[in-house]
Design a protein that fits this description.
- With 114 residues, this protein is α+β, with helices and mostly antiparallel strands.
- A hairpin with a 2-residue loop joins strand 3 (94-97) and strand 4.
- The chain starts with a strand and ends in an 11-residue tail after the last strand.
- It has helices spanning 12-23, 41-51, 76-85; strands at residues 2-7, 28-33, 94-97, 100-103.
- The chain has 3 helices and 4 strands, in the order E-H-E-H-H-E-E.
- Its EC number is 1.20.4.1.
Amino acid sequence: MKATIWHNPKCGTSRKTLAILEETPGVEVEVVEYLKTPFTRDKLVQLFADAGMTPADAIRKMGTDAEERGLPDMTADAILDEMAANPAYVNRPFVETEKGVRFCRPQDKVLEIL
């Protein structure tokens, strides 16, 4: 099984999720450091839809100026534009496998798609 994780190595939850993936037999892990390789807007739309989330649900508020800039009050389209322009506004980690997409907070959520 292939698993793609949108990862930030500075995030403890993201590191723990990656460790689960790497320790699971039969899982081939693709790591996308999304701060270096940003999401496309279309990919964000797909990830959020497949995870059953809205763009507002996925805003990273801690450690960003998202609230000061008014992201939580913006339309979904405007939030997506901001996230595509600045991937730090996307909370993490997201993991995608053939079984679906999960926003892995807590990290054990990844087990649902393995």
